[in-house]
Structure to design on (222 residues):
């Protein structure tokens, strides 16, 4: 089973809702054990944004009326999935919005079950990984974990380098994707986890992994 460093991991965050679809995406490309590149943009929504939407993510209808729709990103997301795996914090949200736009991609590598599969997953889910490796924390929300593991300064520096000037805070897509990527890098720098296989990450990101009390380091490299 290849090491996580050998397979590109595309850490994704979406801002949006089922009614509006994706109104902003952020993607952090991780290669060789670090951040290789980032991508982000605003997208024209399917339905007009409400004041409640804007309060959550800070994007107003006037900000996105002239933007291209998220549907225009098909080739980019198809190619990313064809060359690696997707990751997110609480990946069910990103999976749901992605499948709302495109139900499935062409057959892509299945790094968990082997062979190929026409699916956006399986995903590397940093929330589930932290629930497994660090059971009993008070909160597994993205911001709470960034604070718990003292990653605020590093996240702020990355955001300043990669995020649009007015999108360098929580509930901005690339900022949150960078936060999830930092959590993954921090976990995989822990003693004994440095050479975890991509299969181990995917297995322990599954819903059934919630039932485990702690990750078994003995199978990290299978």
């Amino acid at each position: 089973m290849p090491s996580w460093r050998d397979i590109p991991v595309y850490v994704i965050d979406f801002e949006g809702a089922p009614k509006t679809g994706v109104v902003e995406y952020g993607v952090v490309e991780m290669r060789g054990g670090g951040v290789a590149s980032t991508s982000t943009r605003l997208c024209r929504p399917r339905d007009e944004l409400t004041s409640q939407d804007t309060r959550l993510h800070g994007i107003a209808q006037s900000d996105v009326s002239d933007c291209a729709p998220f549907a225009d990103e098909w080739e980019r997301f198809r190619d990313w999935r064809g060359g690696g795996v997707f990751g997110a914090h609480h990946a069910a949200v990103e999976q749901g919005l992605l499948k709302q736009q495109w139900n499935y991609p062409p057959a892509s590598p299945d790094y968990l079950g082997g062979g190929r599969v026409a699916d956006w997953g399986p995903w590397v889910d940093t929330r589930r990984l932290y629930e497994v490796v660090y059971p009993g924390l008070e909160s597994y929300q993205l911001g709470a974990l960034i604070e718990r593991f003292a990653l605020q300064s590093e996240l702020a520096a990355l955001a300043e380098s990669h995020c649009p000037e007015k999108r360098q805070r929580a509930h901005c897509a690339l900022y949150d994707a960078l936060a999830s990527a930092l959590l993954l890098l921090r976990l995989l720098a822990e003693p004994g986890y440095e050479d975890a296989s991509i299969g181990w990450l995917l297995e322990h990101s599954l819903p059934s992994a919630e039932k485990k009390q702690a990750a078994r380091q003995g199978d990290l490299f299978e």
